[in-house]
Design brief:
The complex is a heterodimer of chains A (512) and B (498). Helices cover 39% and strands 18% of the residues of chain A. Chain A has 512 residues and is an alpha+beta fold. Chain A has three domains: 220 residues, no CATH class; 121 residues, no CATH class; 58 residues, Arc Repressor Mutant, subunit A (Orthogonal Bundle). An eight-stranded mixed β-sheet of chain A has the order 5-6-9-1-10-11-12-13. Chain A has a three-stranded antiparallel β-sheet with strand order 4-3-14, with no helix packed on it. Chain A has a two-stranded antiparallel ribbon with strand order 2-15. The radius of gyration of chain A is 30 Å and the shape is elongated. Chain B is α/β, with parallel strands linked by helices. Helices cover 40% and strands 12% of the residues of chain B. Chain B has an eight-stranded mixed β-sheet with strand order 4-6-5-10-11-9-7-8, with helices on both faces. In chain B, strand 7, helix 9 and strand 8 form a beta-alpha-beta unit. In chain B, helix 8 packs across helix 16, helix 10 crosses helix 12 and helix 10 crosses helix 13. Chain B is globular and about 65 Å long. Chain B starts with 8 loop residues before the first helix and ends with a helix. Classes of the chains: A alpha+beta (512), B alpha/beta (498). Chains A and B meet through loops of A and helix 10 of B.
């Protein structure tokens, strides 16, 4: 059953986590955090019906009779959901549930149409696995840690209660009902808000990297619940509370820290933490009790008789494994080793699979030896421009082929660095649209071709010398600054096209 | 033409083909009988007479244009557990007193595609929970043989409508005997197919792992005609199964053509003493034994087999079925459809009163039993234990079938009892003692009429087959019916002309 794809050996052990234990203590307390992530899988249709999963439509327009839980309807499992969950399982090196089953979790709520949620309790599709993360990445105090994953299981999402939808009344929107979720349950391996954040970001990167989820926190397609407790080192685990509805990385970090402080205050004052579900209020930056264990439901889990057990053949797993993309950690290591990029560059460029694909597409055009310069252009000009426009690599106006076409003109000295920036701007504005040779067309149309003809440059230099006698005098009098002024004049006279190295050389020859 | 309602399905098909009567005439005949006589037995909840007339007219036109579908224009009716688009679908409950389904159950659609005409929706025990059709929100159904008596349940409306000559055939559903026991009480043949044979999509769930739709008619061949369009895999039901689908009527005709005066030569009928124990009414015992003797005379061999103690089976059933029901019926919460209480003061009040007012006592009893069985701390002792026993029941059937081809038993321990007896729940549950094992094992079984008690009440014989052997059961019952006339006895209401 084990399906190892070893992603464990790549991180350098910069600091041993044990050495950090004392640093991680808060007022002498050790923090224990476990995380449940509800991640929507990006199938076109729902987990048990053929209704679409599109986000942002009018209430109750994306729900079929099955999602509405009408009398007599039955669920049928969407096989795309199974495939995505297996990808995740392989991605976290987990034992796969080749025999997995669905259970009913029974409770009443208006946004739960059937009065039960179909989930996997007894036999989840993904068993024990792990993910390697780096905490404080890029900082001096960064360190790696392996986080355990207890299990991940499939389930259907509920609808939404829309409070005050109609004049003081609560409405129910069932568009989300039946959207496929994978719930990823971690071991209580996190010892600080930073560790929790690093784990969540790693999972977020993995699910988007695998292409199994859009994982947009603001749309609710990636939701984190954090179980937090504190204890004195060596003591038994403290009572935990569960933080719910954390919808940004920032609120996760802040909510955990506020909850740690709240719990320590309680214990310091001689009180006891009560097991509870907590809500984080980002406006007041505080956590407060939503419900305690006393009002907890008895969910009366039992196997769903409407769904047969899912038996997954080994060859299905083999096929999915063969089609798995290279995972972020491995890919970053390859960029560092094969392309000799810095750790920093490699990390930025593997920020998403699409970015890494883009970068590698550029490199495959311009050749490995130009990888560093390609990296600089992608990370500097391109990401800078995209970022400014609130875009990302998936919506870039410049294709990898187009950018590579422009870089080639730098490497063959057609473009100087300065002209290249002009060409880049024109490419970004899509002046020649989708054409693969847009860079060449821009160079041609705008006359951006660098002047490298010695005779032509010499003629301009001579003219500049003749017209700037004062500057020439200053230079000859020992003022180095005047030389730069002359270079500037030459560049201006050539409208930026003269090769700067040649200008320097010829100017020196003629003046000295 | 006054006895059209006593014709077999085969005779109706021939009559339509030979233009002895039109579908419209046939449909009018049945509607007239229903209008005149149903007040005596209360078998229908909803009439669809107008659409039926229109469909019958259309069927006649299609037949005139050469449409050869055999069932084209033959009337029938559905148990009100099946969702019917644009038609009230109540499941016998106040909870769904206003539920007009926006979709058709798969079998409703398939039967319509076969050209049959639905005359309406038939009464039933509320949510199919009951054995005498006294739990319906729409009132008790009466037995056409003796209107002081119950028709059995939960498909009591289906049974009494067929037995009264209101429809030639009807659909039913069977979770613990709900087709077979009313068939027995009303002198009909009724078949519960193998679990997975017929789609459950659009059949309002009682106990999902046990529910199975089937057909009811006066004879095995009538049942075969209606069963044919019902069977087959449905992509909308994950528990419906791909399996070879025989032509049931063809199989019956082939067997009849080959039969001699010993049609059952080579057939081993298993008889279990567990099915003839305490609680079996002496007259029922006598009629059933006489039927078995007839089978022997016709060539069958009786062999003794052992099956699980019916009392254990009964306990297992009444643990699992309510457990599933408690979850299946959670969707009836007053929020999206169905009954909603007046002026709820908050959400909990909405739930509590809608469900307390919308569900009748038997449904509430089973929801409570099932909720208890699934509760934390009891789940292992009740639900899990019952699932283990269920596997042993299946194993016992498997072992029994190693020595026989079919198993025979009384369908029910008694004939139809009086409505006024007002049985307490535990006594009523005992009435299911011979039928529920079949559901727990997912086996096919039918009930066929094999005689009358001294009071003139029908008695049924249950034949249980191995998985997917519906054709064998129907053929066996048909050949028996070729040599007997029990299935040709008619109820008092059926004999009435209007």
């Amino acid at each position: 059953m084990n399906t190892a794809t070893d992603n464990s050996t790549v991180h350098k052990e910069t600091v041993r986590p044990e050495a950090l234990r004392s640093e991680l203590l808060v007022d002498g307390y050790e923090v224990v955090i476990g995380i449940e992530i509800h991640c929507q899988l990006n199938t076109d249709s729902k987990i048990f019906s053929s209704a679409p999963t599109d986000f942002g439509h009018e209430p109750n327009t994306q729900a079929s009779i099955v999602d509405l839980g009408l009398p007599g309807v039955l669920p049928v499992l969407n096989s795309g959901v199974v495939e995505r969950a297996l990808k995740f399982g392989i991605g976290v090196d987990a034992e796969l549930g080749l025999f997995n089953t669905f259970d009913r979790k029974n409770y009443f709520y208006p946004d739960l149409p059937k009065g039960y949620q179909i989930t996997q309790m007894a036999n989840p599709i993904v068993g024990r696995g792990h993910i390697d993360v780096v905490i404080n990445e890029g900082e001096k105090n960064e360190y790696p840690k392996r986080m355990g994953i207890t299990r991940a299981h499939l389930e259907e999402d509920a609808g939404k209660s829309v409070h005050d939808a109609v004049d003081g009344m609560t409405g129910v929107d069932l568009n989300r009902a039946g959207t496929p979720l994978i719930e990823i349950v971690s071991e209580p391996d996190m010892s600080s808000a930073f560790e929790a954040l690093a784990y969540i970001k790693a999972i977020h990167q993995l699910v988007t990297w695998l292409g199994i989820s859009d994982a947009i926190m603001a749309e609710g397609s990636f939701r984190c619940d954090c179980n937090v407790s504190v204890r004195k080192p060596g003591a038994a685990l403290g009572t935990r509370t569960e933080l719910k509805n954390l919808n940004s990385f920032r609120s996760i970090e802040r909510a955990i820290n506020r909850e740690i402080e709240r719990q320590i205050d309680i214990v310091e004052e001689g009180g006891q933490v009560v097991q509870a579900t907590m809500l984080y209020d980002p406006d007041k930056d505080e956590t407060r009790v939503m419900r305690t264990k006393e009002d907890a439901n008895d969910y009366r889990y039992f196997p769903d008789p409407d769904l047969l057990p899912v038996r997954i053949e080994q060859h299905t797993v083999d096929t999915i494994r063969a089609a798995m993309p290279e995972l972020p950690v491995a890919r970053r290591a390859r960029l560092e080793n094969e392309l000799e990029l810095s750790e920093y560059d490699a990390r930025i460029l593997t920020g998403s699979r699409q970015l890494a694909d883009y970068f590698e597409a550029v490199v495959s055009e311009v050749g490995q030896k130009h990888a560093k310069i390609a990296a600089n252009w992608v990370m500097g000009e391109l990401l800078g421009a995209l970022n400014k426009d609130d875009k990302d690599i998936t919506t870039t106006p410049i294709s990898a082929i187009q950018l590579a076409g422009m870089l080639k003109r730098i490497f063959d000295d057609t473009l100087s660095g300065k002209l290249a920036k002009k060409a880049f701007s024109a490419l970004y504005e899509r002046e020649f649209g989708d054409a693969d040779d847009a860079a060449d067309q821009i160079i041609e149309a705008k006359g951006l071709k660098q002047e490298t003809d010695t005779g032509a440059i010499k003629a301009i230099v001579e003219e500049v010398i003749a017209n700037n006698a004062a500057m020439v005098e200053e230079y000859r009098g020992g003022k180095q600054k005047a030389f730069n002024g002359l270079v500037g004049q030459v560049m201006k006279a050539s409208r930026g096209s003269a090769n700067p190295q040649q200008v320097n050389q010829i100017l020196k020859e003629l003046l000295d | 033409m006054s006895e059209l309602h006593l014709l077999s399905t085969q005779q109706l098909i021939t009559g339509l083909q030979d233009k002895q009567f039109s579908s419209l005439e046939l449909t009018e005949h049945f509607i007239k009988r229903i209008d005149a006589l149903d007040s005596k037995i209360n078998s229908f909840i909803t009439h669809t007479s107008e659409t039926a007339r229109a469909q019958a007219q259309a069927a006649d036109e299609m037949r005139a244009q050469g449409d050869k579908r055999p069932l084209l224009g033959v009337p029938m009716a559905h148990k009100d557990i099946f969702c019917t688009q644009g038609v009230l679908t109540t499941c016998g409950s106040k909870m769904l007193h206003n539920f007009v389904s926006p979709y058709d159950a798969t079998i409703v659609n398939n039967i319509a595609k076969a050209g049959m005409i639905s005359l309406g929706k038939l009464n039933m025990d509320e949510f199919a929970m009951g054995s005498d059709n006294s739990s319906s929100y729409y009132g008790a159904v009466h037995n056409p043989w003796d209107i002081e008596r119950v028709p059995g349940g939960s498909s009591g409306g289906s049974a009494s409508a067929v037995a009264a000559g209101f429809v030639p055939v009807a659909t039913g559903s069977d979770t613990g005997g709900s087709i077979r026991q009313p068939a027995s009480f009303c002198g009909l043949t009724g078949i519960k197919p193998t679990y997975g044979r017929v789609s459950r999509f659009g059949m309002i769930a009682y106990a999902s792992s046990l529910d199975q739709a089937g057909s009811m008619g006066r004879s095995a061949k009538d049942c075969a005609y209606l069963l044919q369009p019902m069977v087959g895999h449905d992509p909308r039901d994950a528990t419906s199964i791909y399996y070879d689908i025989p032509n049931y009527v063809q199989d019956i005709n082939d067997a009849e053509a080959q039969a001699d005066d010993k049609p059952f030569a080579g057939l081993r009928i298993g008889v279990a003493k567990e099915y003839f124990g305490n609680g079996l009414n002496a007259e029922v015992d006598k009629v059933v034994r006489a039927a078995l003797q007839k089978y022997e005379e016709l060539g069958a061999t009786i062999v003794e087999v052992n099956i699980t103690d019916p009392e254990i089976t009964l306990a297992t059933y009444y643990m699992l079925a309510p457990a599933e029901a408690s979850s299946n019926l959670s969707r009836f919460d007053g929020v999206r459809f169905g009954y909603r209480c007046e002026n709820p003061k908050d959400l909990i009040d909405l739930y509590t009163r809608s469900r307390s007012e919308g569900f009748g006592p038997e449904v509430q009893r089973r929801i409570l039993m099932g909720t208890y069985a699934l509760s934390a701390g009891y789940f292992d002792a009740y639900y899990i234990k019952a699932q283990k026993v269920r596997r042993l029941i299946i194993k016992d059937f498997d072992e029994a079938f190693a020595n026989c081809d079919v198993i025979a038993s009384p369908t029910a321990p008694t004939a139809a009892y009086k409505l006024s007896e007002n049985l307490d729940p535990a006594t009523m549950y005992l009435g299911d003692v011979y039928t529920i094992g079949v559901n727990l094992a997912g086996l096919p079984a039918l009930s066929q009429p094999v005689g009358l008690t001294s009071e003139g009440l029908p008695v049924g014989l249950q034949l249980i087959g191995q998985h997917w052997q519906e054709s064998q059961l129907l053929t066996t019952a048909h050949l028996f019916q070729q040599h007997t006339d029990h299935h040709l006895q008619h109820s008092a209401i059926a004999k009435e002309t209007v």
